[in-house]
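Box 3.1. Reading complex inputs
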Amino acid sequence: MISERGRVPVEEGKMTKTGKPGINRRTTLALMGAGAFTVASPWVARAQAKTIKIGMPTILSGRVAQLGTSSRNAVMLEVEKVNAAGGLAGRQIEMVVRDSKGQPQEAARIARELVNTDGCEIILDGEASSGSFAVHEVARDIGVLCIHTCSEASSLTADPKQHIPNAFRCVRQGIHDSIAGGSYAANIAKAKGLKKWATCSPDYAYGRDTTAEFVTYLKHFAPDVEIISENWPKLFQPDYTETVTKILQAKPQALYSALWGGDLTSYIDQANIYAMFTQMEVFAVNMADYTALTVVKNLPKGIHSGNRYIKTYPATAENAAWGDAYKAKYKEYPTNWSWQNATAVMFLSEAAKKANSTDGKKLAEVLTGLTIKCPFGADGTVTMRGEDRTLVGYAIGWGTTIPNEPYVPEVKSGDWKQIFALEAEWKKSKGYT
Amino acid sequence: MSELNVENRAGAVPYVARPRRAAAIDVVAAVVAFAILAALPFLFDSKALLDFVIRCAAFGLFATSLNLLVGYTGLISFGHGMFFGLGAYGFGLLMQRANVSIPVAMVCTLAITAVAAVVIGAICVRLKEIYFAFVTLAFQMLIHSVILSWQSLTGGDQGLRGGIKRPVFWGIDLTNHVQLYIFSCALLVIGLLLMRQIAQSPFGYTLRMIRDNATRASFIGINVWRAKLTVFVLAALFASAGGMIMSLFVSGAYPEFAYWTISGEGIFINMLGGVTTFLGPMVGTVILLILNDTATRLTEHYGLVLGIVILFFALGLRKGLMDFAVDWYRAWRDKAKEQS
Amino acid sequence: MDLDALIGCLGSSACVVTQTTSGLIIGMLLFLVAVGLTLIFGVLKIVNFSHGAFYMFGAYFALTGYQLTGSFVVALLFGAIGAALIGLIFERVFISRVYGRDVLMQLLVCYAFVLIFDDTVKLIWGAEFKSMGMPEAFQVPPWFIAGGVVPPFYILLISVALAVAALLGIGLARSRLGKVIRAAAHNPDMVSALGINTALIYGSVFALGCALAGLAGALAAPVRSMTPGMGFSVLIESFIVTVIGGMGSILGALIGALLIGLIRSFGSLGFPLFTDGLMYLFMVIVLVARPTGLFGKDVA
């Protein structure tokens, strides 16, 4: 690569030997021409092959690299199974996974390249936040079948401006977690008389929306709750001391946090030495994820959390087997992103069977409203809801954590009927329906 | 304070009135370049190639405009990316909210950028050397935090959602990939041509003089502050145009466009291509994008690969590729003369 | 904006004590990183853009040291010495080639190593985030001072940073090596002409700067999770600190770090959504008023 590029200007220099001072322009014109040739050769789209390529832009480097690696792991695990069983409508799946480094313009470029150059016929979008919106625009633009597998921002599918017939979301959503969490927390608030609450969530769309929704439903179920302190640290902020002490000043009885991953563990470590967890009940929706649970060395007892991925919930043999298989293969526990990506592949496999085709349009038609058997379903199944092409019916619940296996011994399941009813109201209030 | 390598910079020669023919040659070169670019879609059936050139246009305009500051005036800006972001956001917001045509949105965005650049530039260009770099960086971070915080307008970290509509204007339909490509190429070529004229104008030579010796320039009656501010604003306009192309390409605008890493990439492109020739940054853009795309395709350890390539340029070549090529060519020509 | 909260806090001693110590904690860790940055700039005239990576190395080495021995002191030593060794090699093999070169070339080399170091850490320690956990000695309830809450671990942290500041200040002012370093900062050719080995001086200053960053990383390891690329936000903040304080000034780094720490801790009360913005705004104001920073030498 280096030597090849290095040679180009040398040859250009020779070409311009008859030239007088204007070499810059000419050199570049020639360079542009030469560049076009060398560059174009790997860029010729290939004809449809026997194998079907699925492209996956995701984040494999930087602070959230684990999002990409654990997503890819789960996808590969499922793809192996699908391929062993004959593939998608008879075509073996070949995954093409690329790193966007978390940059939206790179995510958009890679998604386009995967389709236009590599001949991918389906996109699994493993991007978070702005990257997923960028990939969504690509899907809108070129009409490729796209399943979002990591972005939890509600507006990605709830907002009708975002609706396109070829894009689906196979991800849990903040609004669902918040309704389930609000109802769970309200029960505890009433039982223990927790009236004064504080919040501490990352200052970006997911953190803000999820927190606002949680507060709405907490108050819906327990009307005399008041929020006395709001804290919005930046995403990936290394130090939370100022918000920890600010919350201690406010002396709330309970704290809600939508921090996740390394930010959550930093927060716990930093709040721990102020003995914060002995002074209030803590509700951290993203605590019960193995990545966070296994990393924190001094996990305080009794943090309330929503389920992210726990192999003991849903407490079925299928779920436990899946978690063990993942751990056996990759020597680490799956993440919340893992089950979402696995589910996306399960949906594709089932849709291809039903449609007996790998055509994007046909698959999209079948996927809309499709219910499949799934180890991560609340009742053993999950559904790709037709109206907004988003995942519902997945296992959702809250429980308290302990510092060792099984980490969350008892999970109280959320009630999907209640979630659907309140979600519909929420959509109306947002002007989405 | 490390000195800039003064003798090694673009055109360290006094300004001699430029014959009208030189400008004419520039125009011809631009027309030919545009013709070649416009012919590509008919020669190669590759959408990815078109995507590549569109991105080259966006980053190329941005990087070349940065070179007006770095190479020609000796102003090392670490915050040039803010105008790239401003262009993307200004254009995207106008298209989404104001319901205007694309050319009107572009002109308005340029006007907004100009105002912002005058205000920021008036504060920044007073500072020298590394302090100028830092204050531009601080402004960049400030604008980035404003974009993140002002969610009702900018959508915060999610960026401008819902896509950017592209209504047909003058018979041009930018929803069509080839037309968007040709439009971007046109903007690129026009932008480069204009910047070339700025660089070769008497004003361009004033900038070089300021770069080489600002004190002397002020002694002979040049208002250094005003000249620096002017080039700061001009460069911002072209960076903004680059941002607009990018927002058309991704059909949105994201806070990352206004982050300092974009400025860093601009600097990096300039170092790769070289700052002593006008087209160095353009070459640098092509190299960086090829490098980026290839490394992403082939490896997960993008950082390692890119880092090693940068080291090769910084410690091996010790200058940008175009600078290297020009030096090599000169040496070769001198040798040829000696022999004949 | 929530100015009432800020004013309310300033009226209560408990709140002032707690927020001030919280500002000190943020500030002192920043100081350790920033003072290395400013030392290296002052003597070597290099803007070490890769300085955040040494903070990262410090944290990861500390983690390994702690896992091997279970001793926090060993962890601190691992962090500081490990970062210093890598810094020394980095300076001798690569940075020494770009002394006196174009400032952009120097930045480019540093930038290359930011990328390389981040990927190296990812290869060695993995992409997932890690946490060291609080050493048992510090797993004690916090102390109360004038009604404010102060954890013992942070007392240690602040003391170590203050001790380093004092040692550096005295060392540079009094010791022979300090005098040589200051002379080298002022006129390297003259020092070299006097028969003093400038390469040795440069190497040791760079290693010292990296050791301080590594120490900061090691001190932060029990309370901050580690990921590849963690040095980055710290680097940006310490840049702000050095620029505000004046590049090359140790006192400036100390004052700048404390100011930024206090802006963060009190700013989070008054302007919870714009705390970062406040720092940048403050930096702009300082630079406009005093382009060389609060304690920087005027550019001749």
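In summary: Confidence is low (pLDDT under 50) at residues 1-48 of chain A.
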